[in-house]
UniProtKB/TrEMBL annotation, chains A, B:
<dbReference type="InterPro" id="IPR045039">
    <property type="entry name" value="NSI-like"/>
</dbReference>
<dbReference type="GO" id="GO:0005737">
    <property type="term" value="C:cytoplasm"/>
</dbReference>
<keyword id="KW-0808">Transferase</keyword>
<dbReference type="Pfam" id="PF00583">
    <property type="entry name" value="Acetyltransf_1"/>
</dbReference>
<dbReference type="InterPro" id="IPR000182">
    <property type="entry name" value="GNAT_dom"/>
</dbReference>
<keyword id="KW-0012">Acyltransferase</keyword>
<feature type="domain" description="N-acetyltransferase">
    <location>
        <begin position="39"/>
        <end position="174"/>
    </location>
</feature>
<dbReference type="InterPro" id="IPR016181">
    <property type="entry name" value="Acyl_CoA_acyltransferase"/>
</dbReference>
<protein>
    <submittedName>
        <fullName>GNAT family N-acetyltransferase</fullName>
    </submittedName>
</protein>
<dbReference type="GO" id="GO:0008080">
    <property type="term" value="F:N-acetyltransferase activity"/>
</dbReference>
Length: 174, 174
């Protein structure tokens, strides 16, 4: 974890305007054996659908028709992506998106960090980035549906189960 | 309950094209002492915000800025309303809306039936109308967040709590 130098909680996040090839916010700088790399967050929707599919494959999610994935990105309120940048190569290493009524509520879906980058604090940074973006749009009720194995991950971020007994419910076609 | 004549499960719902003043689907016809009335469902977004506020007031919900309510209606994927029509008078008696990514997921919010019209099966019809509309748009994952006192209401409609341990979680600003 100390491996990563945090820039996220600085007053103004460093932008990547110095990296004109990529619109986003520079959040992490790390140095390892193979030279410097940056972790950059972005809300740009122009994501290669095959690269996104590969990321989702890497955590074992079922494949979805790319046509529908494209539509879901277009109609999400917020699309957050996390990239590792080395020189002029970039790699999609994390993703999340949120639906919203643009006024009161947002619901976060499809949170994922590539297994090679998990357990370094990056999932937490990605979620904080999503919350910051939603808050900056004046959304105050942020919800999500958590798989049982990640409830504690979200709880550490301040998400609550069943506040005042409110419960998530699901309807699927027969 | 027998008071209402159900038209909802007919193959093609009767439309109110015979009532040109109102775009919607005729769902119920009832006769009581004061003459015939129709219950009509609509997805028209052109709802008087004051009339909606009155409906929400009637079940004790906290007031919300009308400017934000307007925005939320504009950016909801589906807005369902339920009206009682007597002669050429119409009254808003039920409401629900859904956010969505237009592809996979929808989340239903703000389900309400006016207290004078509750416990007659109309809330159930309103929810079936919402589900039907979402299904017709090929949305298969319908979710909502239920207050504790209405969990059974949704359960009767086929909504499940925690399928495979998935749980709804909430984040609010401090
Ligand atoms: C869930 C996921 C996004 C977490 O990403 P990550 O980068 O590994 O998480 P972080 O390293 O930022 O962890 C942040 C904190 O949560 C904890 N945490 C991470 N995963 C956890 C888990 N599955 N259960 C409990 N705690 C977890 C970490 O220990 C860390 O705790 P700390 O702040 O006390 O150090 C990632 O594991 C993933 O993509 N999983 C597969 C897809 C998935 O299940 N997505 C969620 C669907 S609802
Ligand atoms: C919840 C609400 C929409 C239900 O509307 P309604 O028109 O009274 O419901 P219906 O008459 O269609 O009831 C359908 C079925 O659910 C049952 N039901 C209704 N309200 C219920 C409740 N609060 N708890 C348990 N069961 C309930 C009915 O008995 C009926 O059962 P049946 O099919 O076996 O006969 C309405 O009570 C309401 O607007 N409440 C205030 C606002 C609110 O709480 N909204 C939900 C926020 S999450």
């Amino acid at each position: 974890m100390v491996f990563w130098k945090r820039l996220f909680n600085n007053t103004t996040p460093a932008t990547t305007s110095q990296y004109p090839q990529f619109p986003g916010e520079l959040v992490e700088v790390s140095k390892d054996g193979s030279g410097q790399s940056q972790i950059v967050f972005s809300t740009d929707r122009d994501i290669d659908l095959y690269e996104l599919e590969e990321l989702c494959d890497s955590v074992g999610w079922a494949r979805r028709p790319l046509r529908k994935v494209k539509k879901a990105l277009d109609f999400s309120f917020l699309v957050g992506s996390m990239w590792e940048i080395r020189g002029n190569r970039r790699r999609l290493i994390g993703f999340a998106r949120a639906t919203s009524d643009h006024a009161f509520n947002a619901t976060i879906w499809d949170v994922v960090v590539h297994p090679s980058y998990q357990k370094k604090g990056l999932g937490k940074l990605l979620m904080k980035y999503m919350i910051k973006k939603l808050r900056s749009e004046d959304i105050s009720n942020i919800t999500l549906f958590a798989d049982p194995q990640v409830i504690d991950f979200y709880r550490r971020l301040g998400f609550m189960l069943d506040p005042e007994g409110i419960k998530g419910m699901f309807w699927y076609p027969d």
